[in-house]
Amino acid sequence: MLRLTIIYFLFLVLFQTIVFSNEPLKQEVPLIPLKDFFRNPEKASFTLSPNGHHLAFMMPWENRLNVHVQKIGSDEITRITSATERDIAGYFWANNNRIVYIQDKGGDENFRLYAVNIDGTEQKDLTPFEKVRVMVIDDLDENEEEMIISMNKRNPQFFDVYRININTGEMEMIAENPGNITGWMTDHDGKLRIAITTDGVNTSVLYRKTEADEFQPKITTNFKETISPAMFTYDNQFLYMVSNIGRDKIAIVKYDIENNKELELIYEHPDVDVANLISSDKRKIITGVSFVTDKRHYHFFDSERKQLQEELEKRLPGYEVVVANMNKEEDKVLVRTYSDKSRGAYYFYNLKTREFFKLAEISPWLDENILSDQKPIQYTSRDGLTIHGYFTIPKGVEPKNLPVVINPHGGPWYRDSWGFNPEVQFLANRGYAVLQVNFRGSTGYGKKFWEISFKEWGKKMQDDITDGVNWLIEQGIADPNRIGIYGGSYGGYATLAGLAFTPDLYACGVDYVGVSNLFTFLNSIPPYWKPYLEMLYEMVGHPENDQELMEAASPVFHVNNMKAPLLIAQGANDPRVAKSESDQMVEALRSRGIDVPYIVKDNEGHGFRNEENRFEFYEAMEEFLGKHLGGRVEQN
């Protein structure tokens, strides 16, 4: 069952010393072809059919990721989708014989819902509507004919709920959005019983005992506090919630929603948020939680699930191991591995027969023996905060006087985690050390760490990044004359802010779908983000009440300070960061006589999904960084 889980979105002192190997390079690490980092995976996104007889997975066809099906034990593979313009965005099993998938057009994120049989027949566009976004609320795993979805078909700002037939596309609206509902959730019987509302600042959880009843508000909190339903208890009486009410870190709690009271603390961690609940639908119990500190970790409540994890980790030492999927009987398991130097692999495990074998390496052409270690690090900001992040040194190179690329994450209410990042490994292979920073506002570190980022775009959030750069210089790791900055989305904003507000710090920058003007950014958000606008005003700034603050934080108004070379890339159909954000920056710089290389793709949105566009962008970035930072460049 798919369940809607709402999860919200003095100078350097006392730095912690990082210990890296000082072993000199014995022989130069081979230059890995750029396309090997950014080409489509060989196979990915494996899932088991409910009965465990078939596998579905994504595999390239005509340079686009399409859904394929294979019977377990057979070598025959059947391609069941035929996307040529854009990758299939995602899919899942509707029943043992039919698969549902989603796809948008040109990156506009208006996802349509399609269904097709596992032999490729009876393909159907279930939601053939223009400029409408579909989201799945519940796949109704006990109902092979229908599922529950939400769409903004009636009004672009609001998502109503529909029951839809996966064979015919016939649908019936079962809940009309009065205009303030931003999320819906069903119980284990597929009954729509939870709604989430917002007035832009305050969030309410609405509940009804049966579908014949009216929704009633039960909990109202300011958006700064989180109490969101993860799933119903298996008797459908109570809820498991992710909550930071009365605490700084998000925890898992059991909650009596009808009487509006917390019943039991299930699990909390002293240092990080815990929001991932693991459960067994077959045995109808919760089995554990996962959380991320330096890496992913688990705490199990159930000995059977704990034993499975221990067995898998013993079979696959040296990797993060995740149970990616099970069949309905939970006796067949898909296992996924992760590491910092490998995209990982998928394995199949039959718990009854103990049959265990590898299904596929995601990118078998990458040799992890010549890739670089990603080290968790931490340092102290100028105002005393502990800032966590990750640092990657080129393989076999002494960490001294190196060219560095600072790589701030997007969001900004997101975080970097340990694991394979093709951009980081690509940059390291070209000779750059890479610093990833979980600056203030990054999620996972508690309420206070998140809140202190409000209205700090370009200020203290940027200072955290700057402090990391200066720390690398003080440690003697970074060559102060060869430091670049590259990021996407908010990371693109941080790139522009870095060049505008600390112009002497960076030798160059690469902005990928980044915000340049906070005023136009807030005015161009998608219609379905409108309910959150008041919240964004409090977190980013109000165009009228905070005009001076927002102008001071918008790089486009400070281009006169910028002197480092800049490369910009943008998708023309980006619904989150409109093309006008990049256009403004390019126009402002070119008006000063500065030639800014500018890559625009008419068939892309918020990031480049199509393989050939990724190649073009990273080739341009490789040449650009090589010119300005001196790293290695592949000779074509």
Q: Would you write up a description of this structure?
A:
The chain has 636 residues and is an alpha+beta fold. It has a domain at 371-629: Rossmann fold, CATH 3.40.50.1820. It has 11 helices and 35 strands. The chain has an 8-stranded mixed beta sheet with strand order 28-29-31-30-32-33-34-35, sandwiched between helices. The longest helix has 19 residues, at 611-629. The chain is globular and about 65 Å long. 44% of the residues are buried. The model is unreliable at 1-27 (pLDDT under 50).
Write the layout of secondary structure elements.
Elements: H1 34-38, E1 44-48, E2 54-61, E3 64-71, E4 77-79, E5 90-95, E6 98-103, E7 112-117, E8 124-125, E9 134-138, E10 146-155, E11 158-165, E12 171-175, E13 181-186, E14 192-198, E15 202-207, E16 216-222, E17 227-232, E18 239-243, E19 251-256, E20 261-267, E21 276-280, E22 285-292, E23 296-300, H2 303-315, E24 320-326, E25 332-338, E26 345-350, E27 356-361, E28 374-380, E29 386-392, E30 402-406, H3 422-429, E31 433-438, H4 447-451, H5 460-474, E32 478-488, H6 490-501, E33 508-512, H7 518-523, H8 533-539, H9 547-553, E34 566-571, H10 579-590, E35 598-601, H11 611-629
